[in-house]
Amino acid sequence: GITRNFSNSTSLNAIKTVTVVGGGLMGSGIAQVAAQAGQNVTIIDLKPESLEKAEKSIQNNLNRVARKAYKDDPAKIEAFVKEASDRIKVSTKIEDGVNVDLIVEAIVERLDVKQELFNKLDQLCPEHTILASNTSSISINEIGAGIKRKDRFGGLHFFNPVPVMRLLEVIKGDHISEETYQTMMAWGKSVGKTCITCKDTPGFVVNRLLGPYSAEALRMYERGDASKEDIDIGMKLGASLPMGPLELADYTGLDTNKFVLQVLYEKTNNPVFKPIDLLEKMVADGKLGIKTGEGFYKYT
Ligand code: CAA
Ligand code: NAD
Asked: Which ligand places an atom closest to the C-alpha of 206?
């Protein structure tokens, strides 16, 4: 459907149907917030077990949201969860998800795999479909290098956990149209996020600034300046952050952390992003944080 934005008289396509490609940690959260906002959502994943896991985690998180909103009313809780989950369909076939207003890609963080997916989507999707990537660190222009609809393409970078974190970074590739950009901003707002805009620069706003902070925290621990507990308590109580830097690294995953720092180093040459021995070793040893049961801390 078409709605009109009278403030600048650009016509905006209101997003009613969304496909999320990649139903992992981020994709399931993105699907959830869109369904909660009343949009019809399709999740596509190569692996049936990822789709099963996504459906379960969405169900759990919808229940959390509903219990908070309708504390004393089990009927309303059930109705809210059912209504939102009924708007979500899942499939392993990309063809089942192409006929929509917006596609958000949240697959593995690899340039070649993302490019292949976007080239395919560009061929299969109707003219009006907007394509977006949730990449943490790869260049939006490089991801979209092979597509024709460069005016209907950009970055929509969410934060983990998606249902809780209030920010969405809207990334402008070099060829994005004003209409696509405005539609993305309006969509972000419709799913409950505050949107900020950034050019296609390494790490965009948040990861570019979190990177040096995280790297220096790892080096501080590596040097033995303070214990891991004291580094984390320091930043929680002294800078009012919800998690300390080492806890956050465990939460995000040390592999992701390492990858983001690596891309930032390659793209900026800033020595602050140089490889950190401790991080390299922990990743090589499979100590990736919460997801593997051990990182800086142990999780049972
Ligand atoms: N889904 C839905 N709701 C969730 C949730 C999830 N996965 N995890 C937590 N919540 C909700 C809880 O229900 C709770 O809600 P209320 O306060 O409304 O009751 C609220 O969030 C707080 O949760 P908890 O009390 O369980 O725990 P907490 O207070 O320790 O908060 C946290 C958990 C929200 C994760 C918080 O610790 C936090 O904000 N940590 C920092 C996260 C962060 O910085 N993320 C960005 C990482 S960088 C990134 O994502 C970019 C990238 O490209 C890598
Ligand atoms: P994840 O591993 O939890 O999920 C990725 C999912 O994509 C898996 O279920 C996998 O089966 C599926 N997949 C892989 N290749 C596919 C393909 N070609 N087609 C369909 N499905 C495919 O990963 P995640 O943490 O959700 O990250 C996804 C994206 O979001 C990455 O680009 C990552 O950089 C970005 N991101 C991650 C975070 C974070 O904190 N984890 C934050 C912001 C952005």
From this structure: 1
ipTM of the complex: 0.95
**Which range marks the domain in which residue 248 is found?**
207-292
Measured CA to CA, the distance from residue 244 to residue 234 in angstroms comes to: 7
Angle between helices 74-86 and 48-69 (to 10 degrees): 150
Q: Is 38 annotated as a binding residue?
A: no
Cβ of 64 less than 6 Å from ligand 1? yes
Question: pTM for the whole thing?
Answer: 0.95
Number of structural domains found in the chain = 2
DSSP 223-292: HTSS-HHHHHHHHHHHH--SS-HHHHHHHH-HHHHHHHHHHHHHHH--GGGS--HHHHHHHHTT--BGGG
What average pLDDT is seen over the chain? 95
